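Tutorial sheet, problem 5. The two components below are modelled jointly, 870 residues in total.
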Amino acid sequence: MSVDSTTLSEKAATSDDVTEQVFDVARRAKVASRALATAPRGVKDAALHALADALVAQADVIVAANADDVERGRTNGMTAGLLDRLTLTPERVGAIADALRELAALPDPVGEVVRGSTLPNGLRLRQLRVPMGVVGMIYEARPNVTVDAAGLALKSGNAVVLRGGSAAASSNEVIVRVLGEALEEQGLPADLVQSIDRFGRPGGVALMRARGLVDVLVPRGGADLIQTVVRESIVPVIETGVGNCHLFVDASADRDMALQILLNAKLQRVGVCNAVETLLVHREAADFLPVALSALASAGAVVHGDEQTASLAPTGVEVIPATDVDWETEYLAAEIAVKVVDDLDAAIEHIRTWSSGHTEAIVTKDLASSERFVAELDSAVVNVNASTRFTDGGQFGLGAEIGISTQKLHARGPMGLAELTTTKWIVNGDGQVRS
Amino acid sequence: MSVDSTTLSEKAATSDDVTEQVFDVARRAKVASRALATAPRGVKDAALHALADALVAQADVIVAANADDVERGRTNGMTAGLLDRLTLTPERVGAIADALRELAALPDPVGEVVRGSTLPNGLRLRQLRVPMGVVGMIYEARPNVTVDAAGLALKSGNAVVLRGGSAAASSNEVIVRVLGEALEEQGLPADLVQSIDRFGRPGGVALMRARGLVDVLVPRGGADLIQTVVRESIVPVIETGVGNCHLFVDASADRDMALQILLNAKLQRVGVCNAVETLLVHREAADFLPVALSALASAGAVVHGDEQTASLAPTGVEVIPATDVDWETEYLAAEIAVKVVDDLDAAIEHIRTWSSGHTEAIVTKDLASSERFVAELDSAVVNVNASTRFTDGGQFGLGAEIGISTQKLHARGPMGLAELTTTKWIVNGDGQVRS
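Model answer (structure tokens):
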């Protein structure tokens, strides 16, 4: 088999010094993770409560450090939205601490026996859920993710290596120090939660190359960040997040139900991955469009549409001609693409062409249509007569959400704590050998 | 987040033409896979039987094409072992066909409901097992893998794109043609089983870059091949195979049991990943060593050992001084590294340092030792009082074996057909929206 050795050796040649230091961080995380891997739930939950207490006790110090980040962000022209996500107040620190207490209340995924049997030769097999070991997180300028990621990792028995955005560097430095001190007070190693922010961007690159030291890498943030990690990492990655979700209104759809689901899926919260981005309408349900377009426009939504959609728009509702860019765009805004399709086949074909594989929904009264929609679409979640906004770990009853996986390996759709674990086979015998 | 854009653009610049052609193969595989994704088990099993019949009917043509490969291999100085693996006879073609019939007899993993519940708001959730879509296989000069991979993929509802070694090119070309014709006779698309061997090495590189078109890549072959795919692929990979397995004989071990397990694990079959490569002996069980070393030497095994081991060797048994190279080597031969350790902690520390995370075994009568060994070692399979040779899909009762995963994401240890599937959430409602 061919090796693209140029690429490999170039990868190896960048920032050797930083690479070695980041690898050393990961090695210390691995050693620390062993203390937690066999710790019973009580130890982990007590640690989570201690971390929460420490954050609240040190809220003033954290908020002061955060003020430096916010000031720098403002100077650098950060947008109001990003500044808001970056900003910590004592109340927000309290909410972050509460999230850790909620994690403590969730069941522990570690130790579950997934499968087991006794073989004909008497060997007793158990497949047990165990921690991954070291989880890497690469994320952007939201200091709450620092605590969130640490909590998720610890609850599932893992150590975590954090690479946050430089915009939150001062906040993250203080938070990681506070968490580390609290861990040590609980008799656990501070190395369980480490940041590599001090190494800057080369540190992030090194983390993506720490195969064998870091067991899984979870990027959290915008599409660019996620795609970079997916493409560059040789550490196994769980891809999350991008949701170009579709709603198909079938010929037989209850029009009122369709309208409620459309408005909820598009507008209840617009900046999220489970919001609908494209509405497809069966041509026999075209009577739905004037009502739907009016409602969207009244709610302030911008509508992009094909010619048929435009021709059905009531007076005063503007429909911007849609292009392929609209079919592929995740607007993350009060904006929607609308298309009239000939039938279910055309709807399925459109979704197969443009979907990111996150969530699709059909509104229909027809059993055969619902069954074909569900069977023939290859997305993480497929809904019948329900809003796409339900695609969420909390809504699905999985407890804390790590993210929503749009890949097929290891995890698909909303991910709970179990997705930060792997399994181990344990075989008990009394001297069996293979014949 | 930093993008190593040089690396990315260089990747994109190699062999654009081949890349596009391989991507086109993958796209056709994706389209073909849809026909199979919703096919009931009966259709898939009938196809597997038809493929088996076709291989037997065309055995002469296949063996003739294979003779060209064998002749070329002999001219190129291929070793006897590799030539043997490459060679097909009518009998061997029959055995390969029989393996397809055995696959047909296995349960279908597709359609299993993994989890399900009704939420407080009345939404009905089901998490269903569904095919991956397109499976890529990169392997070496063993034409039986061509059929094996095709059968595993089809049984689990997937299309497959094959990149075999150039040494088996003539055999693979004929086999893929025979399989394609048989599929079409069954009313299934020939594109379900495609080879990209005609594109040579650049084709393999392109396959590793077909993220979004190929859903999972499974390398099968030697350590070099597997490591190349793991490092170079941006398609998610399941890493298989390398087994630096350990056997620890505890102070309390039944010496007879330890000897039987040692000889079985090391010598029953030496070229396999679940064979033992290092023996660790508790110093209080050092009396085991003279007997064990004699038995190993009598069976023709080469022994590498530390000083204590050498000092305990009976007259006439040669012990080659062991170095770190021995502790890390997967010999895949009648060769073993032996070390005396102070206690269980030292054994665990040695295994953590050198193991590839495949299989470790302890022989002991002590409950606490067995529990610590099992809990503290982070390998895919950990055995108590049983040979490492049991780490195998067939032995574990999983049916057909795709390989043995030594990674933690998606699959760990012996993999059955279920590991070539993913899941899909299906949500049924009656108009629910999120509040």
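Marking note: Residues 10-240+418-423 of chain A form a domain with the Aldehyde Dehydrogenase; Chain A, domain 1 fold (CATH 3.40.605.10). Full credit if you identified this.
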